[in-house]
Specification:
Elements: H1 2-20, H2 25-45, H3 49-52, E1 55-59, E2 65-69, H4 75-85, H5 89-106, E3 116-127, H6 137-151, E4 160-173, E5 177-182, H7 189-197, E6 205-212, E7 215-216, H8 222-225, E8 226-229, H9 241-252, H10 257-271, H11 277-287, H12 292-302, H13 323-335, E9 341-345, H14 353-370, E10 373-377, H15 383-386, E11 391-396, E12 399-405, H16 409-415, H17 426-433, H18 455-464, H19 466-475, H20 498-515, H21 517-537, H22 548-568, H23 571-588, H24 594-603, H25 606-624, H26 630-658, H27 661-677, H28 693-698, H29 700-713, H30 728-735, H31 744-769, E13 779-780, E14 786-788, E15 821-831, H32 834-838, E16 846-857, E17 862-867, H33 873-881, E18 888-895, E19 898-899, H34 902-908, E20 909-912, H35 924-935, H36 942-955, H37 976-988, E21 994-998, H38 1006-1020, E22 1025-1029, H39 1035-1039, E23 1043-1048, E24 1052-1058, H40 1064-1071, H41 1085-1092, H42 1095-1101, H43 1105-1110, H44 1113-1125, H45 1146-1163, H46 1165-1185, H47 1196-1237, H48 1243-1272, H49 1279-1306, H50 1310-1327, H51 1339-1346, H52 1349-1362, E25 1368-1369, E26 1377-1378, H53 1379-1387, H54 1394-1418
Parallel strand pairs: 5-10, 5-11, 8-9, 9-10, 17-22, 17-23, 20-21, 21-22
Antiparallel strand pairs: 1-2, 3-4, 3-6, 6-7, 11-12, 13-14, 15-16, 15-18, 18-19, 23-24, 25-26
């Protein structure tokens, strides 16, 4: 009957529509469409169930109705369907979700729900305390050693337990309700969310229980039933937004949608219910495998990502979407899956309040209508966003202060004696009322004097509050497992079959290879260049087949080929490391098993190896003059391909076990040394000691070396018989101890194949069982002050200034002169982007970003510079501060009535950038000392300077953090809010008169923003001129400003003037404009102002706010003020003048920069400790392998063995030094750009400090290496020989380090520097004089031998030890030839030349250091 009734209703509805306008053509067409729809539906219902679920009725954009196969839906069809369902997300999404729910309600199907309970939950970590907390070289070595002994149970654990979540947390997260998680930084929000999602790190100690619908975590797969959305945006930059979400949807699968759809279709058919065809088509498309596109398109729409759907996500190498859009991609990546519980960590970072409101509102609709479960942590939720939530959880110090309905949270705090002021956002109030510093202002109990109410007292008060009592009562009743829907919790580990996951990963890998085609083309070009160089060095016309020495040269050419392909695989290390964070995230979300990720990276690299090796063979084989037999050429090609594949697998495996750039690069360099030394070339097999011979047989390079050597030297080219009756080829094989049997070629091939399989399997196992290396945990001082923090485990205590009076106006020890700044008719242009020109959008050559701006900023006045995103706020500030590095500026800028001069202006101004850039390895106090040292006048006494720094630290509330390490943003060190305060303090210690601040509250929670704004207000009250750009201020923050400078899109001013009490003057100005809507009571004036002045409102009202302002009395008043301030204040006054450009003389700049680098290097454990450990292990390795080799010099092989040890150390320790310094220079260079712009020092003192500080550390490295190797290899112990050896090794390590610095200075970032450097490493390897001596290098290349620093190093090291030896070498073919004569004849080494070698080594160091300094001075890769 119900089905018949539905049909009657549909029939009546169609009849009614037709009768409404019987003469109207549109009504007739509508009726015709309804009839077509009914016919199509009837035909659809007659199909078998399998076919019926795979077909649907689609209404085309032209109105035509067709039955379509869902699996063949194209982009246009999907887009058309989605437009019909959700045309505008803000308006249509709720209606669409209600249609979905109503369809299921009509047949009695309920969506499965999840109730999450946590009982007696505690989480603890372990941390070092006291002096051991400060990271430096000594502590790093000591901690590593003790950790190893603790692991072996030799020592007891010396770390102290630290509670992250405590107090036996208990509570319930209910379905169909939105829960907001609030808390100050370090309160444990992230840890709490990870605990609920079942994703806590295994190193943490967890007690208590978390259950879903009464089931413990081990009874189902939590990663497939819930999703944790991280605050970190980790994505593959080369994929578009759509591709990123589509891959996620493909891996997560459809869950139980298909089974639910089958049951839904069955019940509808029984009840004869005809569903909405659009809803039916959508549900079928989202329930079928392979149709992830529709779900992806829907999520893109509700997250507002349609505009950038086909734009690359981007990374530091690839320009992509904005930070706010990346945050939404992170959220969307999990929303496209079928999970039913969402735990979202600070998803609004980088978003304005209106976008945040829209996204949270979409979540609210979905949670309420489809019965989902959600906990969302937000930083500064606006009042309208706060109102969207049903429940609140308030965390502090790892304890839950309140959990319950939002409507009761204010009542709870009223019961504790605190009131929320009328104009205060409740979310802001909640985060400040639990702070020891901010709590007192909300005390409302007049009967009792205020005292600090601790977190524990709040927790106890909540237990007696009626909400807490109800919660405890509900927790006492266990969840009835019978209510758990079978489809709610998932037991399958992955969303689709493993073969489908392999196909998905294979498709993505292939796509990424195409997107990274530049890398592979670059590698081919690099290979071609090295091949051409090798061919022209080993040119066949200069190569002979007459002696063993000739054969040795060919052997070197073969070795160069193998080594080139081994080095070529090194790039796989960096590429694998870059992708590991994405892999770990997706692995932990159970997107795919590790082997499904590892094997495509292996399989798809095989064609790459084939192409690279074909190019190498084509360029070098016949050019060098190897055996011309085609079969032998193909055999050589096979070995090179296998060698290339082995190298790819080796460095992927090293990336998998290293997991960190420094560690993996160190292991990679160590592996290269081991492979090289034990590969049979640098040290012959018969010279390897019994304790290392296993390493020879374990070296894959040995198998490749034996295979290519046998393939070449058993060929016809080497069949000439020497005097002793043995062929030259066989004589070389015997001399160098290669296996002479021909079957060893196939053993070599088999060995390489075995290693290829083994290394790739080990890579998959490493990805399976190893977790990412976590950043070090919190380290606390014995006095409970923070010394070193980690973003996930910050335990900061509220820092309180002892004895400070809030109402006391802060003074300053140093006097300063107040200055105003005025600007008139400011215009700023940039060159028109080529894309816009090419597409014909705009034909002009320049793009106008600032259009005729006028204004003035005065002492003691805090001015807000506001506007929509892209309006030009930061651009104007950069123009006024002189920070622009490009573009064209027009207009006039005056400082206290005189034209602005940038050099003098930098001395009286400060600029707090949005991104807090500081040297990571110095403390807060040291950062301030350095800034004050170089920016205050040299006439300021050191004691006064110290007092001034202390005053500033009190002003910005950094007293308790003076010993805290700054660290890297978002990784280690200070929290975001603490870094903001440090940024302000670094500028304040310069005693500036004018301060610019770019987004000082961006990325902060409400309480942190309040602390920063209090700092800003205190600064203004000292009489300084302060201007802040600000994006979306809260009511409190906008009230703290005195004046507003408002810019609209296009860079035009629309309001410049005082805000008034509670922004009354701003409100009066805009409300007086006809058509502008009035502000609602309690609404944020800043939000209202941006809404009513948007470009959309201008179009609706048909007005131009810029024109209205320019015709206003306010504009005329401002012009008069500008005119008055643009004149000199007094007839006898003078403009700003300083006798020197910088505050300190040149020598003092050098000393200060060196002081800072000393502090930074001592604490840079990742760099210096790793370098020391690597050098020590390498020295022990080479010492044991070459044990006693240096005292042997009776054969040519003895000389080659010793030369091999020298060559190995110089090349590979040197390369490691060069690679490791590049990221250090890259990070510090960003700090240098900021400090140079601030006028702290010139480029040369900075370069001086960076260059000089390397000398003691590199000298220590050389002492370690030489002390170990010189004694173990048993060189002749004389003072002169040892110090020659020491100097040449020290000089070699140092010029490699300076070369790495130079490469970093000449390129935009360390990644490009690393790639460019590799080319020169390979060429230096050829011309180093070991593989081919100078005497055998063609004349046209000999000049480069003299320009190769490695050649001078090897020359100096060998000559200093053997250049005077009269020992006889027995097998050179020359009777009674001494060692020094052989060195002179074969290598071209002369002992008398040592002085020139000394000068050459010094010259290379000076040249590389000088070019680094020049690059720092002349090149600026920071574009503003």
């Amino acid at each position: 009957m119900e089905g018949q009734g539905a049909e009657l209703r549909n029939s009546f509805r169609r009849s009614s529509r037709r009768s409404n306008d019987v003469f109207g053509s549109s009504s007739f067409q509508q009726g015709e469409q309804d009839d077509q729809e009914a016919l199509k539906w009837a035909a659809l219902q007659k199909l078998p169930t399998y076919n019926r679920l795979r077909r649907g009725i689609l209404t085309e954009s032209e109105g035509q109705i067709n039955m379509v196969e869902i699996q063949k839906l194209g982009f246009e069809e999907r887009n058309n369907l989605l437009k019909r369902l959700v045309d505008v997300a803000e308006k249509d999404n709720e209606e669409f979700l209600l249609k979905l729910k109503n369809r299921m309600d009509r047949v009695g199907i309920e969506n499965p729900t999840i109730q999450v309970r946590f009982q007696n939950l505690n989480v603890k970590a372990e941390a070092y305390v006291g002096n051991r907390s400060v990271p430096n070289v000594i502590n790093s070595l000591r901690n590593t050693f003790e950790d190893a002994l603790t692991y072996l149970h030799v020592l007891r654990n010396r770390k102290r337990p630290v509670s992250i979540l405590s107090g036996d947390l208990s509570g319930i997260i209910k379905p169909s309700r939105m829960t907001l998680l609030l808390g100050p930084p370090g309160s444990g929000k992230t840890t709490f969310l990870l605990a609920l999602a079942g994703k806590l790190d295994s190193s943490l100690k967890v007690s208590g229980r978390v259950s879903y619908n009464g089931h413990d975590m081990d009874e189902f797969v939590p990663q497939r039933s819930s999703a944790y959305i991280s605050q970190d945006d980790v994505h593959i930059g080369q994929l578009t937004v759509r591709e990123t979400l589509a891959f996620s949807a493909r891996c997560q699968g459809i869950g139980t949608r298909y089974e639910m759809l089958m049951e839904l279709s069955r019940r509808e058919r029984e009840a004869k219910i005809q569903p909405d065809p659009d809803i039916d088509l959508y549900m079928k498309a989202t329930a079928l495998k392979g149709q992830e596109g529709l779900v992806t398109d829907y999520i893109l729409k509700i997250l507002g990502l349609e505009i950038c759907a086909d734009i690359m996500v981007g990374d530091q190498m690839t320009r992509g979407i904005s930070g706010g859009q990346k945050k939404r991609v992170t959220t969307g990546e999990m929303l496209v899956g079928p999970v039913k519980a969402l735990f979202m960590d600070e998803i609004s970072t980088g978003l304005d309040s209106s976008t945040t409101f829209q996204i949270v509102n979409s979540f609210r609709q979905s949670i309420h209508i489809l019965n989902g479960t959600a906990v969302i942590a937000l930083l500064q939720p606006a009042p309208e966003t706060f109102e969207l939530f049903d429940d609140i959880i308030l965390l502090s110090e790892g304890k839950i202060i309140y959990q319950g309905p939002r409507i009761h949270v204010v009542t709870f705090f009223e019961s504790m004696g605190f009131n929320c002021p009328e104009r205060k956002g409740v979310a802001d109030f909640l985060q400040e009322v639990i702070s020891i510093k901010d709590q007192g202002q909300y005390w409302a109990n007049q009967e009792e004097p205020y005292r600090y109410i601790s977190v524990d007292e709040f927790v106890d008060g909540f237990k007696s509050f009626h909400v807490g009592c109800d919660l405890n009562e509900e927790l006492s009743t266990p969840f009835d497992k019978k209510k758990n829907h079978p489809a709610t919790l998932t037991n399958s580990r992955y969303g689709i079959s493993k073969m489908e996951l392999l196909n998905a990963c294979m498709s993505r890998e292939f796509l990424l290879m195409k997107r990274n085609s530049f890398v592979y083309i670059f590698k081919l070009c690099q290979l071609f260049i090295i091949g051409v160089v090798a061919t022209t060095v080993f040119l066949r016309t200069k190569m002979h087949h007459n002696s063993v020495e000739d054969a040795s040269i060919y052997l070197g050419a073969l070795f160069i080929g193998l080594l080139t392909h081994l080095f070529n695989g090194f790039a796989e290390l960096a590429m694998s490391l870059t992708r590991l964070p994405i892999f770990y995230k997706q692995r932990d979300f159970n997107f795919y098993p590790a082997w499904a990720y590892a094997f495509p990276a292996w399989i798809l690299k095989i064609p790459v190896s084939l192409v690279e090796c074909a190019l190498w063979i084509g360029v070098t084989y016949y050019g060098i003059g190897f055996d011309p037999n085609v079969q032998r050429m193909l055999r050589a090609f096979l070995v090179y391909v296998l060698m290339s594949q082995m190298a790819f697998g080796l460095f992927r495996f090293i990336a998998g076990i290293g997991r960190d750039e420094v560690i993996a690069n160190t292991i990679g360099s160590f592996a290269l040394i081991v492979l090289l030394v034990l590969g049979g070339y640098a040290l012959s097999r018969d010279q390897i000691g019994d304790w290392w011979i296993w390493g020879y047989y374990a070296s894959p390079l040995m198998y490749a070396q034996n295979a290519v050597v046998i393939n070449e030297f058993l060929g016809n080219s080497w069949k000439h018989v020497s005097k002793n009756g043995v062929t030259i080829g066989m004589q070389l094989l015997n001399l160098r101890a290669y296996f002479p049997q021909s079957y060893w070629y196939w053993i070599g091939v088999a060995g390489l194949l075995g290693y290829i399989f083994l290394l790739n399997i080990l890579f998959a196992l490493a990805l399976t069982f190893l977790n990412p290396i976590r950043e070090r945990q919190d380290i606390l001082s014995d006095k409970d002050s923070l010394v070193y923090t980690n973003k996930s485990l910050s335990l900061e205590k509220d820092d309180v200034s002892n004895g400070s009076d809030k109402n006391k106006k802060k003074g300053m020890v140093l006097p300063f002169i107040s200055h105003s700044i005025t600007f008139e008719n400011i215009k700023y242009y940039v060159d028109m982007p080529s894309e816009m020109k090419r597409e014909g959008i705009i034909k002009e050559d320049r793009l106008l970003l600032l259009n005729n701006l006028n204004g003035s900023f005065r002492p003691g006045v805090l001015t807000a510079l506001m506007g929509v995103s892209g309006a030009g706020k930061t651009t104007l500030m950069d123009v006024l501060a002189g920070r622009k590095t490009g573009g064209y500026i027009e207009g006039d800028i005056t400082i206290s009535g005189y034209p602005k001069n940038q050099e003098t202006f930098a001395r009286i101004s400060g600029y707090c950038e949005q991104f807090d850039i500081h040297s990571p390895n110095v403390t807060v106090y040291e950062s301030l000392i350095f800034s004050a040292w170089l920016r205050l006048s040299h006439e300021v006494d050191i004691n006064i300077r110290q007092m001034f720094i202390e005053e500033v630290m009190e002003l910005v509330e950094l007293g308790s953090l003076r010993g805290a390490l700054v660290g890297l943003p978002g990784v280690t060190g200070l929290s975001t809010e603490q870094r903001k305060r440090l940024t302000i303090a670094v500028e304040l210690v310069a005693n500036p008169s004018i301060i610019f601040m770019d987004e000082p509250t961006s990325g902060l929670d409400a309480r942190a923003a309040a602390i920063v704004m209090r700092t800003v207000r205190n600064t203004v009250d000292t009489g300084r001129t302060v201007v802040c750009t600000i994006h979306q201020p809260s009511i409190d923050i906008i009230d703290s400003f005195d004046e507003l400078y408002l810019i609209k899109s296009g860079g035009e001013e629309i309001f410049v003037g005082p805000l008034g009490w509670h922004c009354c003057e701003l409100i009066q100005y805009f409300e007086a404009i006809q058509g502008v809507s009035k502000i609602k009571d309690g609404y944020n004036p800043a939000t209202w102002m941006l809404e009513v002045t948007s470009s959309g409102q201008e179009q609706i009202l048909d007005i131009n706010f810029a024109e209205i302002y320019k015709n206003s009395e306010l504009f005329r008043r401002n012009k008069n003020m500008i005119s008055n301030l643009s004149k000199p204040p007094a007839p006898g006054s003078r403009e700003l003048h300083f006798p020197t450009q910088y505050s300190q003389p040149f020598y003092m700049q050098c000393w200060a920069c060196l002081w800072k680098q000393h502090k930074s290097y001592w604490r840079n454990t990742a760099y210096n400790t790793t370098k020391i450990v690597f050098t020590t292990i390498t020295a022990l390795l080479l010492g044991t392998i070459y044990w006693g080799a240096a005292k042997k010099s009776s054969t040519m092989q003895d000389i080659f063995n010793t030369a091999g040890s020298i060559y190995s150390a110089v090349m590979f320790i040197g390369v490691q030094n060069s690679q490791m310094i590049q990221p250090v220079v890259d990070i510090e260079r960003m700090v240098f750009y900021r400090e140079r712009s601030a006028g702290m020092y010139s480029a040369l003192p900075y370069a001086f400090g960076q260059v000089i500080i390397e000398i003691p550390y590199t000298l220590f490295q050389a002492v370690i290496y030489c002390s170990i190797v010189y004694s173990m290899t048993q060189f002749v112990w004389t003072v002169a020989k040892f110090f020659w050896f020491m100097f040449f090794m020290f000089g070699s390590f140092l010029y490699f380090t300076y070369y790495g610095m130079m490469a970093a200075g000449l390129t935009p970032n360390s990644t490009i520097a690393s790639i460019v450097s590799t080319i020169f490493y390979s060429i230096w390897n050829i011309f180093g004089g070991f593989i081919i001596p100078r005497t055998r290098i063609p004349k046209w290349w000999r000049w480069y031998y003299y320009g190769c620093p490695v050649a001078w190093s090897i020359n100096g090291l060998i000559t200093s030890q053997y250049g005077e030896s009269d020992d006889i070498i027995s097998d050179t073919g020359v009777s009674n030839e001494t060692v020094k004569a052989y060195l002179r004849r074969y290598f071209g080494y002369h002992h008398d030349f040592l002085g020139y070698i000394l000068l050459a080594i010094i010259s290379f160091n000076v040249a590389f250091a000088f070019i680094f300094a020049l690059s720092i001075k002349k090149l600026n890769f920071q574009k503003r």
